[in-house]
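Supplementary Data S3. Sequence and structure tokens for construct A.
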Amino acid sequence: MSTYICLCQWTQKGIENVRESPARLDAAREEWEKDGVTIRDFFMTTGQYDLVFVVEAPDDATLAKVLLAQASKGGLRTTTLHAFSESEYRAIIGSL
């Protein structure tokens, strides 16, 4: 499994319906699990991004699928980062 950090911003539609956000999170968690994507951590944040997800997915294509499906509902825009654990980081640096 790969780890990803998803930085999210509410769209105008998303903020207009912000009270529904917890239900949307629950629905996303359930839908994503069907594709093998797990939300490990979730944070509401201040600043440039409104929400941050730390997720695990089997591969980039699977994550892209669930994020595109989520974004197509109109509530979020996402920026996604592939994250490397400390042990992966050490192995990459050690191979230089």
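Construct B, processed identically:
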Amino acid sequence: MKKITSVQYSLILFDEATHFEWEQVEYLMSRLRSSAEGDSRMVLSCNPDPNSWVLPLIEWYLDDQGYPDPEKDGAIRYFVRKSGNFVWGETAEELMHLCTIEGQRPMTFQFISGTIYDNPPLLKENPAYLSFLEGLNDVDKARLLYGNWYARAKGANYFQREWLQKATEVPLGATLCRAWDKAAQEPNDVNRDPDYTASIKMAKCRDGYYYLIGDWDELSKEPTSGIAGRFRKRAGARDMMILNQCSLDGKEVDVILPKDPAAAGMVEYQESAKKLIERGYRTYQDPMPSNKSKLIRFQPFASAAQNGLVYIVESTFTNKSTLEAYLKELESFDGEASKIRHDDWVDCTASAFNYLSAKRVLPSFTLPNNQTINKDTRVSGLKQILHRG
């Protein structure tokens, strides 16, 4: 989009807003600066799309199934922008301390849901339209007729949270690792939403079951959302935070780092691994080649989860927001690259699983007590030895 810096608007309207890029909408927000008596505002209309940038903005207004919550519908919320992120509040007063520019005040946001049933003139003018909506497939019907923002076609993603079994703790004797997906950029004017450095801790017990664990360092928590387990820092600060996490985990937790296939990727891996190994942390790379597609790398974990082999220890995920963000990222992954969805947790989850699945865990056993072996058994064993001799 060509940026026209001289224009001034008091009202900007978008139809089918999900078809536009967030960068376009965000820039036009900066042009709401006319001298009109009324407050400048932007109005957007759209149909539900679970992959759209709109969803994070209106998700507070939805229930657990993704339908608009009638008790929140139309409620006015307040927000300020910090480093490209939205910081929300129920009142303007609770956000005033974040307004650092003289005269700045929080802005308002409102979501008003609507279905065909809220448009009687359209139903009267075109009664067949309702029949068309009723005849859609289940996913499109949930979205277009009832306004569901979470509905996805079956098979469009590769993981469902319902496949995970729940556990309160990890069995003793399990093999532990923490896998990382690394990035080295902070939000900036060119890229407001760069990749995260993310990690997940995983265990494999002796009977072949896997356990998802958070146990993140408090420093990894995002300052605006409170979500833990991922952060955006440049390489130096990032490596220090990785080292802090290793110190918290302890030396019995193996560290799994990514390695890009290019020569520079090998150098990056070796330098990062060397820093950790020098401090006594066992460090390895994902055994599956990194030139494989993200989907190929993720499918073994997804298959194990679908077959009931993966547990999750929810109490280790810092808070509800973190748990929801992690599970939603895994559920949203459809194997395709996206500018809207992140897949940093997807990548490190795949790395942790691929490492542990290739690592042999010896089953537990108990040596027999000689006092409990009866005389006949010892004599029989002696006869076999003499016979072989």
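The chain has eleven helices and 13 strands. The first strand starts at residue 11 and ends at 15.
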